[in-house]
Design brief:
Blueprint lengths: L11 H8 L8 H7 L5 H6 L9 H5 E8 L5 E5 L25 H14 L3 E9 L5 E10 L7 E8 L2 H11 L5 H12 L5 E7 H5 L13 E7 L17 H7 L12 E3 L2 H8 L2 H7 L5 E11 L5 E11 L6 H38 L8 E8 L11 E7 L5 E7 L5 H19 L4 H15 L16 E8 L4 E7 L5 E3 L6 E2 L21 E4 L5 E5 L11 H13 L7 H12 L8 E8 L7 E6 L5 H16 L3 H21 L4 E7 L3 E8 L19 H8 L2 E6 L4 E8 L1
Helix pairs in contact: 6-7, 6-12, 7-12, 12-13, 13-14, 15-16, 17-18, 18-19
């Protein structure tokens, strides 16, 4: 059966308008037109007959707005005093009456009713007044009766109880301290002309001081409504309150007694309490402000925890009533826990970002230039912590580039990320190859996921990925290994760009049946090459395949000019490729490979014979003479080379490789052999010379160590010049 009313039926607008007489007096329009004073509401109600002055009818006020198909106002009936200041003008878009953040949602609802004809009923909504304050209403959207087109929006303003409910709902939508305080200040504006939220400074850092002396409380302004140009000297958001002002407001937030609201009723008392013109300029919002209610934000407990204080300022003609103070205290009490949740979130966010900052790549040095960009999926800690990049020089002159994607986000993922990153750095610095490092990381992830540590903590890192590349600035080669990570993109100076061909491998912590030895891929990277390491958030797009995303990255990185500033180029690449609606972290590490100049390095290959040390001293001495080093530096380098070569001849078979590298601050001596023994400092007696040669190396160098190769080992030592 068709339930559409006939054309002669009254429109929803007419029906709503006719019902207004049940909720407002006949002269209500005149009262509203004659004064925008919020007390006009009470004045109008005094004319209502006693039989109709029920509490329900005093709280509920009905209004109606008619809209055309373009969602512009055609007619309105908002004559009730409670709607004073809501500028519903014919021809104006209805969404101009809404807060900016509600416009998309309400617009979608309006158009949905236009298209389907199905009403949208009882939406809790805020309307903006011309003075910046807001009115909470219950909004219903109805389709106009044929043959008319458009919509009718009915508005029911429920003065206090609905406002309390809606305010609590709105305040709990954010985990940011500033946004939560701003929402609370906007809600409190229904009871005053100006509202401010001052929070204990510890809240901003994620901590709460419970037992500080009253005189040492430090308050910072978190929110101020309305947002307008304030006079010089007045405390605005982000400013700390003067110390003596904090002591005065601390009367409302005593930590040694039950926190209660404090009301200063008139301007004369305010001036007497504040005591100085400087404090009046800092705290009192203008000459018309005459009374203030200070309501503490308290978390119930033993002892109670005080987070700060809310201030509601009024003009002289609007004194606070007891019922209003009860409403204010109820709203602040209901929403204090939201501020505490934001505080806890701020603490976690600070911890996660501290881990991220510790892992950001430092300057690459003379042989490599690096730049990185990290963008979390969301600006809070819920979207931080999964992806990480790092680049750092190794003690033997090479540079490590590491990128990883830990499963999940938040503090658990950030803690795992920090542990894996630091472990990778330590193992690489100890001389392990990239594939050996990944084997250790695989064991670590499996260990973290056992029943006693990982799963008991409610977090699992199984399936995390990692890619490690080590750049040798002398041979201009990169050694790379990957655990389930996307391949890096290489842009050589004189060749085609593209992803590095690496064999796929499961992520870290895979089951034993899936584990295979990690492949090591080595490739040439001539000076001027650009290497891009990244995480999947940069190249994943629902509309494209992952291969298309990597091709887009290759094209963007290929467009980086050799003279471009690398950090700016990295930001440009991310802004070009990153999806607008990110579902994952976006991470990019660009490395411009420079290497050592040919004249700064020398390599000799010697047979493992008894005269190898003498031959090495002769070759090195000639080179140091050409380099023009000081005599004391030459003597130290010759002693180091002699000891390292003699040790290689004694304990290894096969040829010996001697390499000398001139760096910015000294010389790097390397001696490679085919042995697999690890040189150690000896602790023998006077006649036992085993390992005593390394004491000479240890005393003449700033650092020395061992790295392992496919054919043996390399012992290196750094000498200052």
């Amino acid at each position: 059966m068709d339930s559409t009313p006939p054309p002669s039926s009254a429109s929803p607008f007419d029906m709503v308008s006719s019902a207004l007489g049940q909720y407002m007096p006949v002269d209500g329009a005149a009262a509203a037109a004659g004064s925008a004073d919020p007390q006009g509401d009470n004045a109008a109600r005094r004319h209502v007959p006693a039989a109709d002055a029920t509490p329900a009818r005093q709280e509920q006020i009905l209004g109606a707005v008619n809209l055309d198909p373009d969602l512009r106002i055609t007619r309105c009936n908002l004559d009730a005093p409670v709607f004073a200041g809501v500028e519903a003008v014919s021809g104006r878009p209805f969404v101009d009456l809404l807060p900016p953040w509600d416009v998309p949602t309400v617009t979608r609802r309006l158009r949905q009713v236009l298209e389907t004809g199905e009403p949208h009923v009882a939406r809790v909504q805020r309307l903006r007044r011309g003075d910046g304050s807001q009115l909470v209403v219950s909004m219903s959207i109805l389709a106009a009766a044929p043959p008319q087109e458009g919509l009718t929006v009915s508005l029911i303003a429920m003065a206090r109880r609905l406002h309390l409910y809606a305010a609590e709902t709105a305040i709990g939508t954010s985990l940011d301290v500033g946004e939560t305080a701003q929402s609370l200040a906007e809600s409190l504006l229904a009871w005053g002309d100006v509202t401010a939220i001052d929070l204990d400074f510890a809240v901003w850092t994620g901590e709460v001081a419970v037992d500080q002396p009253q005189g040492r409380i430090r308050l910072r302004r978190a929110a101020l409504v309305p947002d307008r140009a304030w006079p010089d000297g007045y405390v605005t958001p982000g400013d700390d309150l003067p110390g003596d002002a904090s002591r005065l407001l601390a009367r409302a937030i005593r930590r040694d007694d039950a926190a209660q609201a404090v009301v200063i009723p008139d301007r004369k008392t305010i001036e007497r309490v504040l005591g100085s013109a400087r404090l009046i300029r800092a705290l009192v919002p203008g000459d018309r402000a005459a009374g203030v209610a200070c309501i503490p934000l308290v978390l119930e407990g033993a002892p109670p925890v005080v987070l700060g204080v809310a201030e509601v300022w009024r003009r002289a003609d609007r004194p606070f009533e007891d019922s209003e103070l009860l409403d204010l205290q109820e709203l602040v009490a209901r929403t204090s826990h939201h501020v505490d949740l934001a505080r806890q979130h701020q603490r976690e966010h600070t911890q996660v970002l501290a881990l991220q900052r510790r892992l950001l790549p430092r300057s690459g040095g003379d042989t490599i230039e690096t730049a990185s960009v990290y963008q979390p999926a969301t600006p809070d800690s819920a979207g931080v912590g999964g992806d990480w990049v790092n680049s750092f020089p190794l003690p033997d002159g090479r540079t490590a580039l590491v990128v990883g994607d830990v499963v999940g986000h938040g503090l658990g993922a950030a803690a795992t990320m920090g542990q894996l990153s630091m472990e990778a750095r330590a193992l690489l610095s100890a001389g392990l190859a990239p594939d050996e490092v990944l084997e250790h990381l695989d064991e670590t992830v499996s260990l973290l996921d056992d029943a006693e540590s990982g799963l008991a903590a409610g977090y699992s890192a199984l399936g995390s990925t990692c890619c490690i590349a080590v750049y040798d600035p002398v041979s201009h080669r990169v050694t790379l290994a990957s655990a389930g990570h996307l391949p890096p993109v290489l842009v050589p100076p004189d060749g085609p760009a593209g992803p590095v061909a690496i064999r796929p491998h499961p992520g870290l912590g895979a089951e034993f049946a899936l584990r295979e030895p990690y492949d090591v891929h080595a490739f040439s990277a001539p000076p001027g090459s650009l290497l891009a390491l990244y995480t999947d958030g940069l190249v994943e797009d629902p509309a494209l395949s992952i291969d298309d995303g990597i091709d887009r990255l290759t094209e963007a990185v290929s467009a980086v000019h050799p003279w471009d500033a690398l950090q700016q180029a990295a930001r440009r690449v991310v802004s070009t490729l990153a999806p607008r609606r990110r579902r994952d972290d976006v991470t990019l590490l660009l490395a411009r490979l420079i290497g050592h100049r040919k004249g700064d390095t020398a390599t000799w290959r010697l047979p493992a014979r008894g005269d190898a040390a003498a031959r090495a001293r002769t070759l090195v001495s000639e080179l140091l003479g050409r380099w023009g080093l000081r005599e004391d530096t030459r003597d130290s380098v010759l002693l180091v080379v002699d000891e390292l070569v003699a040790n290689a001849v004694r304990f290894a078979d096969g040829p010996i490789t001697v390499r000398l590298i001139r760096t910015g601050h000294g010389l790097l001596c390397e001696v490679g052999d085919t042995g697999n023994g690890r040189p150690r400092l000896g602790h023998g007696g006077l006649l036992d010379d085993g390992g005593r040669g390394l004491y000479v190396v240890h005393g003449l160098t700033t650092r020395w160590g061992v790295r392992w190769t496919d054919t043996g080992k390399v012992v290196w030592a750094s000498v200052e010049r």
